[in-house]
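Incident review: delayed structure delivery

Summary: a single-chain prediction request sat in the queue longer than the usual turnaround. Root cause was a stuck worker, restarted by the on-call engineer. No data loss occurred. The affected request and its eventual output are reproduced below so the record is complete for anyone auditing the incident later.

Affected input:
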Amino acid sequence: MNKKGFTLVELLIVVAIIGIIAAIAIPNLLTALQKGKQKATMGDMKTIGGSIDAYITDWSWAPQVGDGLVTLMDQPWFRPFYIKTFPNQDGWGTTFQWTNTAGTDTYSITSWGKDLATGGPAGAPAYGIMYDVTQLRDFGNDIVYSDGAFTFGPRVKR
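Output delivered after worker restart:
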């Protein structure tokens, strides 16, 4: 009797190899997903900032809206003239935060990052200092776009 098939040892070896590959691939996949959300957030912030900069060029001051970006995106004088589609949430589903000084051309757009809270994890550098994101835990730090440039957040690696 000559039966063909796999032995239990062969099946266990295959399962162990698949487990090792999964253990290596899953953390890399999770990091890639967070990087994608981060890059999308930064792109949206740059788009919003560009439209606000265009408004500032026309009117010499940042838009004055009391309730932030949600109110700004509903203004007929702003959309669709300065921006066609207005992203109001970051990659993690949190509404962008908007601050500006009345009667000036200064403004700031903030995303709270993965942790959905202002600030960031313990040891995060002070605002105004760019930093490199090198570990998954760094995705919780805020990203701030102020007056036409990123003032706090991950540095674009070249």
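Verification: Confidence is low (pLDDT under 50) at residues 121-125, 127-136.
Action items: add queue-age alerting; document worker restart procedure.
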